[in-house]
Amino acid sequence: MWTAARRTSHSQILGINMELVSPFAAITASTLREGFPLDVRSLLRGLASIQPQALVRSGTDAGRLVLALVLIVSLCCLSWLQSVVDDWIEAYKTDRDMALLDLINFFIQCSGCKGVVSGEMFRNMQNSEIIRRMTEEFDEDSGDYPLTMAGPLWKKFKGSFCEFIAVLVRQCQYSIIYDEYLMDTVISLLTGLSDSQVRAFRHTSTLAAMKLMTALVNVALNLSINMDNTQRQYETERNKNVAKRANDRLELLLQKRKELQENQDEIENMMNAIFKGVFVHRYRDAIAEIRAITIEEIGMWMKLYSDAFLNDSYLKYVGWTMHDKQGEVRLKCLTALQGLYYNRELNTRLELFTSRFKDRIVSMTLDKEYDVAVQAIKLLTLVLHSTDEVLSPEDCESVYHLVYSAHRPVAIAAGEFLFKKLFSTREPEEEGAPKRRGRQSPNANLIKTTVFFFLESELHEHAAYLVDSLWESGADLLKDWECMTSLLLDDPVPGEEALTDRQETALIEIMLCTVRQAAECHPPVGRGTGKRVMTAKEKKTQLDDRTRMTELFAVTLPPLLAKYSIDTEKVTNLLQLPQFFDLDIYTTGRLEKHLEALLRQIREIVEKHTDTEVLEACSKTYHALCNEEFTIFNRVDIARSQLLDEMVDKFNRLLEDFLQEGEEPDDDDAYQVLSTLKRITAFHNAHDLSQWDLFSSNFKLLNTGIENGDMPEQIVVHALQCTHYVVLWYLAKVSEGSHRKEELVSLRKQMRMFCLMCQRYLTNVNTTVKEQAFTILCDVLLVFSHQMVSGGRPLITNSPSPLSLSQAFTILCDVLLVFSHQMDDEAAKIEALHKRRNLLAAYCKLIIYNVVEMNTGADIFKQYMRYYNDYGDIIKETMSKTRQIDKIQCAKTLILSLQQLFHEMLSELGTGFDRSSSAFCGIKELARRFSLTFGLDQVKTRDAIAMLHKDGIEFAFKEPSPQGEGNPPLHLAFLDILSEFSSKLMRQDKRTVHMYLERFMTFQMALQRDDCWLPLISYRNSLQAGGDDDTMSVVSGYSSRGSSVRSKKTKAATPTATVAAAKRKLPEGSSRTRVWNMQTPVMMPSPHLTSTMMRGPGDMREEAKRGRDDSYMGVYALPSDSQQHPHPHTLPQTPQLHQTPIDYNRRGTGLMEEDEEPIVEDVMMSSEGRMEDLNEGMDFDTMDIDLPPSKNRRERSELKPDYFDPGSIMDESVNGRPPGNTTSNCICHMHRKQQVYCEKLTYKPIN
After folding, report:
1. Contact present, 255 and 170 (Cβ < 8 Å)
2. Predicted pLDDT at 138
3. Is the separation of the CB atoms in 1187 and 348 below 8 Å?
4. How far apart are CA 1058 and CA 1123, in angstroms?
5. Strand partners, 794
6. Long-range contacts of 1085-1090 (CB under 8 A, 24+ apart)
7. Residues 6+ apart with CB under 8 A from 378
8. CB neighbours of 1235 closer than 8 A, spacing ≥ 6?
9. Helix axes 127-135 and 182-194, enclosed angle (nearest 10)
């Protein structure tokens, strides 16, 4: 309501007569009107001259309004709060009625109401009448009020508002708080406002009442402490000898204790009134924010004054509310309980509650709201910290597996729980004894426990996620690399069980993950939220960790490699460690001999292994060590060059013998060639081997394989890959800077030869070879496409023809895209699907980057429905990208894919097919899916849709009937498919398309009504629907260019004005000639490569379902009149939140089950009757107080509905709902009842 954007005059909101207000008040109102500018302190200095006592004594409404403004502005400056409260207390002592009236107006103003409570109203009207009068003042369009408004100022307002109440009670706790007038009046007012149907009143007053209750709890706690001290002093004085006893002091202490007891009773009466009058109703309010306030405050009461509030009578409300459907409320429950479980002294009082609600807390660790799940895990950690016997092993296991969660806060909280459960117990070290290191350190058993847990979890590929989860709570344990290497290298001591081979593999993997985490300081893939700027302390820790790990592993890595040199998995992980070293340590730490040992071990591993993963790890290690910035570069470069020289020489010798004419190579020769080629290919991936001229030897090998046809599969695969690396390294060399003409000519020649070789291998009988050739060919064509030029000229001139590539892909579609369901191994199925998705994505990128013609994508688009679950996301993304490049060509490709499927159906079923057959229905469903991809903006897709219909009509009448004249054309049934796109035509375009259709029709066709002519009839009907109203279509089409959301204050345009405006908006050249004489626009810049991550079938189905629903929404903009009077069947539906509801029908002898109540309160019911039901069976230790009738009576039946809260308007049927049923948090009035109340109260309901 008070937003700077609206610039609503605050004097109008508050109803101020500016002629009666002092100049400073005018400044205050102006300040509020401008939204509290930053120079508010200068304003406050001016307002400081206003004396609240003088304003109150003036007795005018203007004076009271100015004081209310002063109080509100004071909330923006906490330093001014104290003096304002002191001045108000002095004014209260002078004239309590007028001062109290100012405080009442303050609460009214803070609710955002413009009304003012006058002195006459205060004296002569009851609270219910005053609230009803204030309710009628809410006639603003906006439903905002101070507590819900955004911005830093209003956030500060909320905090200051709460602080004001606390300061007020604190300053009054020794005097006027006990006068039986101030607190009774305030509590009565807040209780009545909290029962209002106006959300602003209910929200603001509930917050004020709960903060008032918290302040009274602090007062009661102080009184309790003073009573205990007084009682102790009294007992001490009475126990003295008669001679030393001071009777006067005893009487004073007795009198003081009596006064404190009376004050305590009075405070308890106040708290009882607030609890029963506000809390027991509002903790089930329809608004989640209000429920959250109540739960947050009751948690504070139990924490502050546990002797009075920490019992089952109050804990039950928190337990019940943990089943709330709103995550915000559940979160407040958990944070409230955390404050209780944190104090171990309170654990004994929580035993019954824990046993009753433990299962609910454990289930909340899987809450759909991540914040709630995090706090639930933290609460269980506190429960575990307090007592280890409450949580069963099943409860703990349900938390353990969350360390592998993709949501990092959940995983870290679960890691803390796991660390406290499994690793909190350490072996005590004897004082004075030398610190044990390595295998004998206290961390040895804990590291073994980590390994055991990792293996038992059966998620062996997720060690990085386990380490990241434990990093914050157990970093010291995870960075004890000395102990880890000792467990791997040292022999076990007598009596100690050695690690098994599987455990050693797991330990090495965990050790690698900890090294990576310490060196990179960011979470693994899938958990990161973007790059985070590290603090100076974190950077220093990172440098220290890298130094320490380098010093340790530089010495221990060579013996580790020597010990596990034949184990592929262990060696692969160990070889990744040098990538995280600080290589300067080799020089500064005089560790050159250990570097030599490392290089020798890597060389031996390369010579021993032929596994691709091991060889690539060795290649990356050499690449990390061969850094020119470090002094060890020359030494490592020499070792690498020697190794590569030997491998290339060996390969050339073996290849010469292998390809020697007249001799049949044996398996041993093939194995030698393959193993050497594998090593060279792995190193060529990370190192430039251009100086060894590997292109000639590999091309010779590949050419021989084509000629003879008996080349082993793996040799061809690795030869293709190695040649691919040769071409790419050559391209990188040419692209770096100036290049000679000879180099460019040589590159083009190699490129042309290699592409032709890949094309030839596309027809190979071996599937693996075809996959490799196809993938490499797509990548090379993409890299050397027309978009990558040198000096303005393409790097290649003779690329493979798109037609041959498309034909090859068609073959691959038949062979590769058909998913084999005969595989029994699920892992094999997933791997095969992953390969096929990569092949499809490779070809789709060629389409997107215009390497091949866009119409070749028809072979892919027509498979959209058939392989929707496996490739639907890739095909849909390709359609989206092609539409961004060229909408018309994309539409022509879509219709071409449908035509191809139609031809295939005719060839399979013949010309007399049944249009209800599954094949025809499948094509029609695919057309419907294609139609949904065009979206709702008809203007953007106008030309594309028109061209689609043009091609479809021409195709339908292209082939005459084979049965002769008088029969329908051969492809006439295609019009039934084409009708799926009619809804995407603008209305004036429907007439144009219909006229184009009539060009192909004869007079006899228009008269036909046989079944074989039904496609033509239905298509014509789809074009004629709404086609006569041109002006409507123009309005709907062109209005979609702008925002469809209109201001609520905009007047509804008259029909005449609408039509006139529409006719003015008609574009020139919108005739039929314009539609059909469309030219293909210039190609847009090709988009970036997109990810083709696999999405689940469920997600795709949901997306398709949403698209289907959207397609039948109103495409055309409704007239303004229709927006003013919504159809009764279009009322918004209440969203169904999938949260486990609480079963309130349970009854038993357990904790707090005798008077369970629903979370959401039916706010239309009588408060008095509901209060009696709620308090029935409650055992409170407080007394009911009898406040003055004029201030305590509430007439809820006369209050008005809350039209400012769309979520709290309820259905009439809810009024009769049994109390045991669970209702939703957002309940709606019937539309008819809204109109009745609107006519009765002249409210403007918020739609």
Report:
1. no
2. 74
3. no
4. 14
5. 789
6. 1086/787, 1086/848, 1086/849, 1086/850, 1086/885, 1087/848, 1087/881, 1087/884, 1087/885, 1089/845, 1089/848, 1090/848, 1090/877, 1090/881
7. 334, 338, 413, 416
8. none
9. 50
Instruction: Please state, in angstroms and rounded to a whole number, the distance separating the CA atoms of residues 206 and 222.
Output: 24
SS3 789: strand
Give dist(CA 141, CA 867) in Å, integer.
Answer: 52
Residue 134 contacts residue 197 (beta carbons within 8 Å): no
Ranked by mean pLDDT, the top range of 310-319, 627-636, 961-970, 1084-1093 is: 310-319
Amino acid found at 53: Q
Q: How far apart are CA 194 and CA 199, in angstroms?
A: 9
Distance separating alpha carbons of residues 732 and 726, to the nearest angstrom:
10
Cα separation of 133 and 750, whole Å?
A: 89
CA distance 945 to 1033: 15
- Tokens encoding 707: 């000629």
Helices (H), 173-198: 182-194
CA gap 784, 790 in Å, rounded: 10
Alpha carbons 347 and 387: distance in angstroms, whole number: 8
> Within a 10 A sphere around the Cβ of 141, how many other Cβ atoms?
12
Better-scored residue on pLDDT, 891 or 16: 891
Euclidean distance between CA atoms 994 and 607, whole angstroms: 75
Q: Are 702 and 723 in contact (CB under 8 A)?
A: yes
CB 807 within 8 A of CB 759: no
Do 285 and 198 contact (CB within 8 A), yes or no?
A: no
Contacts of 247 (CB under 8 A, 6+ apart): none
| Helix or strand run (H / E) with residue 358 | helix 351-363
- Residue partners of 388: CB distance under 8 A and separation at least 6: none
Task: Name 345's Cβ contacts closer than 8 Å, sequence gap at least 6.
Answer: none
The closest alpha carbon to 373, from 340, 342, 339, 403, belongs to 403
The span from the CA of 708 to the CA of 703, in Å, is: 9
1037-1045 LR contacts (CB < 8 Å, sep 24+) = 1037/938, 1037/939, 1037/942, 1037/986, 1037/987, 1037/1116, 1038/939, 1038/1065, 1039/1117, 1040/936, 1040/937, 1040/938, 1040/939, 1040/1117, 1041/939, 1044/1117
Quick check: 199 and 1205 in contact, CB under 8 A?
Answer: yes
Give the model confidence (pLDDT) of 970-1016 as tens digits.
888 889 889 999 988 988 888 899 888 888 887 777 777 777 788 88
**Burial environment of residue 971 by CB neighbours within 10 A (0 to 12, 13 to 18, 19 or more):** buried
Angle (nearest 5°) at CA 1170 between 1164 and 1171: 130
For 883, counting Cβ atoms within 10 Å of its Cβ (0-12 exposed, 13-18 middle, 19+ buried), the class is: buried
The whole-angstrom distance between residue 313's C-alpha and the CA centroid of its chain comes to 38
Instruction: Check residue 1091 and report its DSSP letter.
Output: -
Alpha carbon distance 919, 1009 (integer Å): 25
Are 578 and 618 in contact, with CB atoms under 8 Å apart? Answer: no
* Contacts of the segment 428-432: beta carbons below 8 A, 24+ positions apart: none
Rounded to whole angstroms, how far apart are CA atoms 538 and 535?
Answer: 5
Report the SS3 class of residue 794.
strand
Looking at residue 798, its amino acid is N
Is residue 225 packed enough to be buried (19+ CB in 10 Å), middle (13-18) or exposed (0-12)? exposed
End-to-end Cα, the chain, rounded Å: 17
What are the tens digits of pLDDT across the range 184-198?
999 999 999 999 988
Distance (Å, whole) CA 679 – CA 661: 26
- The strand pairing partners of 789, in sequence order, are 794
Q: Is 103 exposed, middle or buried (0-12, 13-18, 19+ CB in 10 A)?
A: buried
Query: Dihedral of CA 1059/1060/1064/1068: which sign?
Result: positive
547 in Cβ contact with 581 (< 8 Å): no
Mean pLDDT (the chain, rounded): 75
For tokens 């002191």, name the residue.
86
